[in-house]
């Protein structure tokens, strides 16, 4: 009974918390914004990694495409991009508020479209690989994308792109991007919750459990795999567009295609929380983000080493994550319907 | 693209690129052989392969800085890396050896990040290289230069490869390693201590990487985060050659070295790294397409 009420009330409480947080903790606004982005990262990785059993190290590529697409479109609507990037940081960009917001939203619409288009092409090529080979190929893909961006002078090459400055006050800009990120996080979560409850969710779970059998039963596995990758790419593309604006500067290797930071974190967060579950990546993202902030505060200089240790420890000792552990320890909590079933499990 | 025409106008330039590529490719072959060894015996793809290479380079660098001849750096790097590999096995790898493939992949990836960061803190983020104080040979009026150290590196590679083959064929441990690779369970029943075999295999792989790293430091550059590309190169070479095909590994490594040199020259050095990673993706995709016609998969 209490559990049932908790199930109903928890989402509302979380939404209220999400809306109140930036006003309650204004000093941590940027960290809170990134928390939502991290949740999107973990959820998107888990579509393939957890639900479909395809462990991708290259999802960061779609994020990076989103970062570049949003900003380049925003600038390109009103100015010559090549001249702007060629000047490096020397040329400042002055957009009127109307131009800025038009560009922002057109850019944020273009980012997922481009990311999804790339995901279709790459998916058709790469999703025929399995296991180790898929993992390593996507690892190569993520880094190759970063290197190509760093070598492409239209995108500013390795010196990156300066993102247009928000026309209002700093505070209002941060609030706007907080709520955009929060909206994206909630939208991602709700979309995936709906998707996993449909035939699509069953299909990708079937692919995870036994792909050959799923195919033999008549599932068009390639189609499902590509669609799943596209869905991840869409949300990652939007997240990329937002992150470009939140950070204010695009570096090809450190921001856009940051395989060694964002790229690894998204895997780690999903595993920490429990991959293959809906709430696992969310929980993992919250805990991981908190730990990361602690590392950055108290282990200055050693924070990246601590991250490396954390990855090894989580993977080796805790591969099923928090929810996976809970599910083994207290299976009755995870039974969907009816107290009767719960009582049955308890016996 | 101008450089492409330059190649046709001055053929010795192409020769230069080919020689450089082949001599560098020999070092890739060492790291790739180590990767294939661990893959074949333990069924682990060792993602921190490149970090072992870089660490070997740093050991050689510090041996040389201590006043010893740079060539002492090669055995020193092998010994230190053997210890590092053994330690890594005893701390982490033995827990993931017979687990899900993804867990071992991610665990070694975590090790790779950890080692990269530790090297960054210990040795600094700069790109470094070790001068072995050897000269160069000049051909075609100085158009083609062959640094002697690169030839030495090739010879060292050949010696190490020969020793490895002899070790695997003749020695008791080498036979145990091969037996474990063929069938770990049967080997265990027949009295092979597979845990020790795994530890030795992993440490041996690290030592091979250490030697490769010492050579890389002398003929090229090392940096704390420059490891991943060596992992990718090794993986690509092994995929091209197939597991357990030593000749194939050498041919693929030399070919990759040469291809990289040509791409770097024609498109510019900034595309060289991108080329390696794109080539990896392309090779895997092409192989999977060919297999798919027979309803088989790379897995």
Describe the structure.
The complex is a heterodimer of chains A (347) and B (299). With 347 residues, chain A is an all-alpha fold. Chain A folds into two domains: 49-257, no CATH class; 264-337, no CATH class. Chain A has helices at residues 2-24, 29-52, 60-76, 81-86, 97-126, 131-151, 170-197, 199-209, 211-216, 221-247, 252-256, 259-273, 279-298, 303-317, 321-329, 339-346; strands spanning 161-162, 249-250. A two-stranded antiparallel ribbon of chain A has the order 1-2. Chain A starts with a helix and ends with a helix. In chain A, 48% of the residues are buried. Residues 337-347 of chain A have low confidence and may be disordered. In chain B, 76% of the residues lie in helices and 3% in strands. In chain B, a hairpin with a 4-residue loop joins β1 and β2. In chain B, α2 runs parallel beside α6 (148-170), α2 crosses α11 (246-267) and α4 packs across α9. Chain B contains twelve helices and two strands. Chain B is globular and about 65 Å long. Chain B is mainly alpha-helical and 299 residues long. Chain B has a two-stranded antiparallel sheet with strand order 1-2. Chain B has one domain (2-269): Orthogonal Bundle (ABC transporter involved in vitamin B12 uptake, BtuC).
Can I get a quick summary?
The complex is a heterodimer of chains A (347) and B (299). With 347 residues, chain A is an all-alpha fold.
Provide the residue-averaged pLDDT of chain A: 86
What share of the residues of chain A does DSSP label as strand, in percent? under 5%
By CATH, the topology of chain B is ABC transporter involved in vitamin B12 uptake, BtuC
The low-pLDDT segments of chain B are none
- Average per-residue pLDDT of chain B, rounded, comes to 87
% residues in beta strands of chain B:
under 5%
Tell me about the largest β-sheet of chain B.
2 strands, antiparallel
CATH class of chain B equals Mainly Alpha
């Amino acid at each position: 009974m209490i559990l049932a009420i908790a199930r109903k009330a928890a989402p509302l409480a979380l939404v209220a918390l999400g809306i109140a947080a930036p006003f309650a903790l204004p000093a941590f606004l940027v960290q809170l914004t990134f928390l939502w982005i991290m949740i999107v990262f973990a959820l998107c990785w888990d579509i393939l990694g957890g639900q479909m059993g395809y462990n991708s190290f290259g999802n960061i590529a779609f994020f990076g495409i989103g970062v570049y697409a949003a900003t380049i479109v925003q600038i390109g609507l009103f100015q010559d991009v090549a001249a702007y990037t060629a000047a490096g940081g020397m040329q400042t960009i002055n957009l009127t508020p109307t131009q800025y917001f038009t560009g922002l939203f057109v850019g944020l619409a273009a980012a997922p479209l481009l990311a999804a288009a790339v995901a279709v092409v790459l998916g058709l090529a790469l999703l025929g690989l399995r296991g180790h080979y898929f993992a390593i190929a996507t690892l190569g893909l993520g880094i190759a994308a970063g290197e190509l961006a760093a070598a492409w002078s239209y995108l500013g090459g390795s010196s990156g792109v300066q993102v247009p400055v928000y026309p209002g006050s700093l505070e209002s800009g941060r609030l706007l991007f907080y709520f955009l990120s929060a909206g994206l996080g909630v939208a991602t979560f709700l979309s995936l919750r709906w998707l996993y409850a449909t035939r699509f969710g069953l299909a990708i779970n079937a692919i995870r459990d036994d792909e050959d059998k799923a195919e033999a039963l008549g599932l068009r596995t390639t189609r499902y795999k590509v669609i799943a990758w596209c869905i991840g790419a869409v949300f990652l593309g939007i997240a990329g567009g937002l992150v470009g604006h939140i950070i204010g500067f695009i570096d090809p290797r450190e921001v856009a295609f940051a395989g060694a930071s964002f790229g690894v974190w998204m895997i780690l967060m999903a595993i920490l929380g429990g991959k293959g579950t809906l709430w696992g990546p969310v929980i993992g993202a919250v805990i991981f983000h908190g730990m990361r902030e602690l590392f950055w505060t108290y282990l200055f200089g050693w924070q990246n080493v601590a991250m490396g240790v954390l990855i090894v420890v989580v993977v080796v000792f805790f591969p099923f994550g928090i929810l996976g552990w809970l599910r083994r320890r207290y299976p009755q909590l995870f039974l969907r319907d009816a107290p009767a079933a719960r009582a049955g499990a308890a016996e | 693209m101008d450089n492409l025409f330059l190649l046709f106008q001055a053929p010795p330039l192409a020769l230069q690129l080919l020689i450089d590529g082949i001599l560098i490719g020999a070092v890739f072959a060492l790291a790739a052989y180590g990767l294939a060894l661990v893959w074949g015996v333990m069924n682990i793809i060792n993602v921190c392969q490149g970090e072992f290479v870089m660490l070997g380079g740093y050991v050689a660098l510090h041996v040389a800085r201590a006043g010893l001849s740079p060539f002492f750096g090669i055995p020193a790097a092998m010994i230190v890396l053997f210890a590092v590999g053994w330690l890594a096995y005893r701390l982490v790898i033995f827990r993931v050896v017979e687990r899900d493939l993804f867990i071992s992949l991610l665990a070694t990836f975590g090790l790779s990040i950890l080692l990269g960061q530790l090297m960054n803190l210990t040795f600094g983020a700069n790109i470094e290289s070790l001068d072995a104080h050897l000269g160069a040979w000049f051909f075609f009026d100085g158009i083609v230069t062959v640094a002697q150290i690169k030839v030495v590196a090739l010879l060292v590679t050949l010696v190490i490869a020969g020793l490895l083959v002899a070790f695997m064929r003749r020695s008791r441990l080498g036979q145990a390693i091969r037996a474990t690779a063929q069938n770990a369970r049967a080997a265990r029943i027949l009295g092979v201590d597979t845990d020790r075999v795994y530890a030795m295999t992993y440490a041996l792989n690290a030592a091979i990487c250490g030697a490769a790293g010492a050579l890389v430091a002398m003929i090229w550059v090392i940096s704390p985060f420059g490891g991943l590309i060596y992992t990718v190169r090794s993986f690509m070479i092994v995929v091209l050659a197939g597991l357990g095909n030593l000749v194939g590994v050498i041919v693929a490594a030399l070919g990759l070295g040469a291809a990289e040199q040509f791409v770097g020259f024609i498109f510019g050095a900034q595309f060289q790294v991108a080329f390696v990673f794109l080539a990896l993706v392309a090779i895997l995709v092409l192989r999977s397409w060919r297999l798919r016609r027979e309803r088989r998969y790379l897995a």
